[in-house]
Design a protein that fits this description.
The chain is α/β, with parallel strands linked by helices. The protein folds into two domains: 2-154 and 310-342, Medium-chain alcohol dehydrogenases, catalytic domain (Quinone Oxidoreductase, Chain A, domain 1); 161-288, 3-Layer(aba) Sandwich (Rossmann fold), CATH 3.40.50. The protein contains ten helices and 20 strands.
């Protein structure tokens, strides 16, 4: 990591990705909020799988890093300035995917499908590791005054989980299978329980993550490298949070006839093979989930009232100046759940 220090009242420290595993600490001018925007001083940034892909490979799916960019889309901070009714000092969780608001998808309320939007931390749009962001006021969601900013940064992945649970139409009493006990899987577990799911079963091959699933209330946590899923299809809904083809296939075979499979995790390859003949014979419903569309207020409410545990998912914290160390830790240490950078 290279470091440059040029203190100035009108700029601030930022962590900028120049290429694979090339993070540099630089000074960037403070952005100025436009009409309808607020300037947010970032207090916490959670690292996501997409950040790790950009850091390790310079790309994430079809999107390629072509110019120096600050990563970070899971973020919370404090309003510094703006001309809208979010007074300075308000703690906010940032909804990072900003749609155009005009296209057919946006007008239909499916703004997560906007083809013209931008997302903080998705190159070339700078993200929260700039330390400061100007955010449209409606995408800066107020938090309680005593709400930890580290938890505030996890409102974004919680919104992902809530959207997945809503897409799967999880309801009271449903038997729910969750494949993959990473941060999203653990949040999907809690979201399913919050809407009244009956039995919840979580699968993974990481013993530490499975133990965390038990602590968060999973009825069963199965290490599928040692204990396969039951042969009888008994679950009403399966949500695959791993993106791994074998897990998605196992989930489809574990769902009862007429049940639902939700693809939540991002697959590592552009094409995935599914047991379509089986799914057709069983009349399974396959649902996909991408980001969120309106779930941030519910995510804030559930976390603020203690119905969702966010803080226990934070397993490591780093200052902004050690962003490269944070990314390496998240990339290489399987014991980590959520690594957070605190600018």
């Amino acid at each position: 990591m290279h470091e440059e220090n040029h203190p100035d009242m009108n700029d601030a420290t930022a962590a900028i990705l120049h290429g694979p595993k090339d993070v540099r600490i630089e000074r960037r001018p403070l952005p100025q909020p436009a009409a309808g925007e607020v300037l947010v001083k970032i207090g916490a940034v959670g690292l996501c799988g997409s950040d790790l892909h950009y850091y390790a490979h310079g790309e994430n799916g079809p999107n390629v890093l072509r110019s120096p960019t600050a990563l970070g889309h899971e973020a919370a901070g404090t309003v510094m300035a703006g001309d809208v009714p979010l007074p300075a000092g308000t703690r906010v969780a940032i909804e990072p995917a900003i749609p155009c608001g005009r296209c057919r998808a946006c007008r239909a309320g499916r703004y997560n499908q906007c083809p013209h939007g931008r997302c903080f931390g998705s190159p070339p749009t700078d993200g929260a590791l700039t330390g400061h962001l100007t955010v449209p006021a409606e995408f800066a969601h107020p938090l309680p005054d005593d709400f930890p900013l580290t938890s505030g940064a996890l409102i974004e992945p919680l919104a992902v989980a809530l959207h997945a649970v809503r897409r799967g139409n999880v309801t009271a009493g449903d038997r729910v299978l969750i494949t993959g006990a990473g941060p999203i899987g653990l949040l999907v577990l809690q979201a399913a329980r919050a809407v009244g799911a009956g039995e919840t079963v979580v699968t993974d091959v990481n013993p530490g993550r499975l133990a965390h699933a038990r602590r968060l209330g999973a009825d069963r946590a199965l290490d599928t490298s040692r204990e396969p899923l039951p042969q009888d299809p008994v679950f009403d809904i399966a949500l695959d949070c791993s993106g791994i083809e074998s897990a998605l296939t196992a989930a489809a075979h574990a769902v009862r006839p007429g049940g639902t499979v939700v693809a939540v995790g991002n697959p590592p390859q552009p094409r995935t093979t599914l047991p379509l003949a089986w799914m057709q014979r069983q009349e399974l419903t396959l649902v996909t989930a991408f980001r969120y569309a309106g779930e941030f207020p519910a995510a804030v409410s559930l976390a603020a009232t203690g119905r969702i545990d966010l803080e226990s998912l934070v397993t490591a914290r780093f200052p902004l100046e050690r962003t490269a160390d944070a990314l390496e830790t998240a990339l290489s240490d399987p014991a980590q759940l959520k690594v957070v950078i605190e600018p």
